[in-house]
């Protein structure tokens, strides 16, 4: 069977420059400036501006919103009570998962190395739901095919002690925009708009799209997956963005960031009762930029609503000149470590803000109840060669930052060399 190659995660625009008093961070070799806020001190990169956090302006997340979300966790099954997992996963397309020899390769890695998880596409950029279901909404759209017996696949992987993550591409969906063309993003002439890859998008503000994504998630949860991983949870980032015309989204009424935050909230409310973990893929620059990147992604907005946040810190996807590197792809350890350090700083700052808002309540400790960082790492050649020792440098960076939730490797061809990984540890992640 010929394997189809999925689309890459896309890079974003270069970060803005920062002018001001600077000093050099010995740990990272990056020049930084320190800005004092009303409640916190935040480290800011010369080319990477982090938000200045103040309890008077807590990241545009109001106390009532936070308090309501805290209360909601006490009325639905807790996800974070059993979220202390170190998941070391490899990515598989649905085609690889459906090919016996390729699946056996993945299982063999889990049997002989530190790998203990897989991420499997159940709906990629094509929009095809790769397992059959009796769900009337999915069946009505003729979106499902019988490529995978998902429940049987999950059972088999669980029997090997492998943690199963189902990946769902959200707003990049070629099937949905064909069967429901009124949901498609269009150009000024009314034609379906395409990005530089020739791919169309559905409107991220559409409640109808949200409901559809939740139904897919529920069906995967019923099949027994451990985690639902949502990708492309954003507005388009490339192509002629000036031509975008949305059927639902109105910039005059709501920002892109507000739309994406509402989507996060909706996913959590609808899918927490399913009992699975929830994770969100964000651009790598979301760890260091103070804005929503023009696509609606702000890392602070995801902390409340997911168990894991997975920034795609692929060094090849950072702009030339990032951290003063002529080619960031040549510096995998430094780029990954710097990005994840900033992500953890922002996570800690957000937890302090949350603690102040929730003071006096019986809510769990803030750091225990907000999302943990589990990054996507580069395992493909782009910008530089990425053999096992280079991939290993990224894994070392994750550990050196002190992250304990693990990592996920992205390789479009799903080829992973055992030399990339350490031998099987004595303790492996058990299935749910």
UniProtKB/TrEMBL annotation:
Keyword presence, Glycoprotein: no
InterPro entries tied to this protein: Divisome_Glycosyl_Hydrolase, DUF4015, GH
Membrane-spanning intervals of the chain: 32-53
Keywords: Membrane, Transmembrane, Transmembrane helix
Gene3D superfamilies listed in its UniProt record: Glycosidases (3.20.20.80)
Domain called DUF4015: residue spans: 89-416
Pfam families referenced in this protein's UniProt entry, alphabetically: DUF4015
Name of the protein in its database record: DUF4015 domain-containing protein
Origin species: Candidatus Segetimicrobium genomatis
